[in-house]
DNA sequence: GACTGACATCACCATGGACTGATACTTTCA
DNA sequence: TGAAAGTATCAGTCCATGGTGATGTCAGTC
């Protein structure tokens, strides 16, 4: 039984800047200002990407005064990892299965 | 140490039809004709997507007379799975790390 | 209450890429 | 050798989406 991978989630992660953000957030919880410093991207651009990450359930927001902290949710990445592992296992199990023409 | 995930590979996998192809190939090795039957997509369209999958190293081709068999390469998916797992593990380890503003 | 900083939203533009029809190439078979 | 089937390539169209500037909103500070 092959678990289906969510293409929307993959699309979200396939953007270089968004993956950069995710990688940075894996190391520490940051707010937008930090991300602007780290990535060199414009605030507007980052805000747009963070919205996408939020809507994909990849990050949680934590308002703190006038700052907004962004925290990565490991569960989502773990699930994705598991889905790819399952897909790879299926492929290995059926390595010799070939439909004839 | 966070392994960097390849965004190009993610972009390739984030297309619904391509992921569909990958999922089908995980179950059995197929040729283009089979994929046309299974997906309902045009031959030209499929050929384009298969080229993308080939160039991304996700599939191997095996010519067989006038047919071309496509075989999924599990290593690539396994590597991807491991990279996401590592990223998630990093995030769990640093769950309480927060940079102050 | 006026001002500044942090962040979000909006409207717009530019570009990548998915899909298509036409066509070329290659193999098999009559 | 001609025809048909399987597949790849090419040129073109169209749309989704990433980037940007202008602007809005809210919290803290004077």
From TrEMBL, chains A, B:
Coiled coil: none annotated. Gene3D superfamilies: Winged helix-like DNA-binding domain superfamily/Winged helix DNA-binding domain. CDD domains: HTH_ARSR. It comes from the Bacteria. Residues 1-92 form the HTH arsR-type domain. SMART domains: HTH_ARSR. Keywords: DNA-binding, Transcription, Transcription regulation. SUPFAM superfamilies: Winged helix' DNA-binding domain. The keyword Transcription regulation applies. The keyword DNA-binding applies. One of its GO terms (molecular function) is DNA binding. PANTHER family: ARSENICAL RESISTANCE OPERON REPRESSOR, TRANSCRIPTIONAL REGULATOR, ARSR FAMILY. This is Transcriptional regulator.
